[in-house]
């Protein structure tokens, strides 16, 4: 048996704007999406049913499908301008008709779409200002100055690297050489390790 739970409801658009002067805007479409792997039922409710007509206000949506519903404004009159109404899209399980979620779509009738302003809560594009550019340039200059003034490797590190190189050039005790100065193979391994560490330190300061 399917576990009953609340799920997100996907609707587009999120709001409808009807224009008093633009007759084509009196008829609009709301698209309902069902991204789930099971069919669902839907019902459409409204806060003011006398002002609107919805073609097929209830029906079903197959799994991973969508449907379009037509919304008509029946009262495009000046008296109803700037009044906000809401449609509620309710989703139900197809078999049990248990409500699993809903989504509200706000509507408004404006006198002219040209003079209509977006609500304050809507996102607006950010503009690039001179202040932000100056701050970014200053930050870049600070980073460049920091990198330029980074101290190089100290003399002790260079001295250690030189000793390790000299030690590795000496013959090992296993070699049959006539030279008097010899070191063991294990000591050469230790010198090679120290040389590797000092080399890494020098490269980090470049």
Q: How many beta-strand runs?
A: 9
Chain-averaged pLDDT: 77
Taking the sheet with the most strands, its summary is: 5 strands, mixed
Number of helices: 3
| Amino- and carboxy-terminal Cα gap | 66 Å
Description:
The protein is an alpha+beta fold. The protein has helices spanning 130-148, 155-169, 185-204, and strands at residues 10-12, 15-19, 27-34, 40-46, 52-54, 58-61, 65-73, 84-93, 99-110. A five-stranded mixed beta sheet has the order 2-9-8-4-6, with no helix packed on it. It has a four-stranded antiparallel beta sheet with strand order 1-3-7-5, with no helix packed on it. Strand 8 (84-93) and strand 9 form a beta hairpin. 10% of the residues are buried. Residues 131-148 have low confidence and may be disordered.
């Amino acid at each position: 048996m399917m576990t009953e739970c609340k799920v997100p409801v996907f609707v587009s658009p999120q709001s409808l704007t009807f224009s008093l002067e633009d007759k084509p805007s009196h008829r609009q479409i709301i698209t309902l999406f069902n991204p789930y792997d099971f069919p669902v039922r839907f019902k459409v409710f409204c806060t003011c049913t006398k002002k609107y007509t919805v073609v097929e206000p209830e029906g079903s949506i197959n799994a991973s499908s969508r449907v379009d519903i037509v919304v008509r404004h029946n009262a495009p009159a000046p008296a109803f301008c700037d009044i906000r109404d809401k449609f509620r899209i309710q989703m139900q399980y197809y078999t049990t008709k248990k409500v699993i979620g809903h989504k509200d779509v706000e509507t408004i009738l404006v006198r002219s779409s040209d003079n209509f302003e977006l609500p304050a809560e809507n996102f607006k594009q950010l503009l690039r200002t001179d202040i932000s550019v100056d701050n970014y340039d200053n930050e870049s200059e600070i980073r460049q100055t920091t990198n330029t003034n980074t101290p190089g490797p100290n003399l002790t590190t260079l001295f250690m690297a030189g000793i390790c190189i000299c030690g590795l050039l000496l013959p090992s005790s296993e070699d049959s050489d006539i030279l008097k100065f010899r070191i063991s193979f294990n000591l050469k391994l230790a010198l090679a390790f120290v040389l590797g560490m000092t080399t890494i330190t020098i490269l980090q300061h470049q």
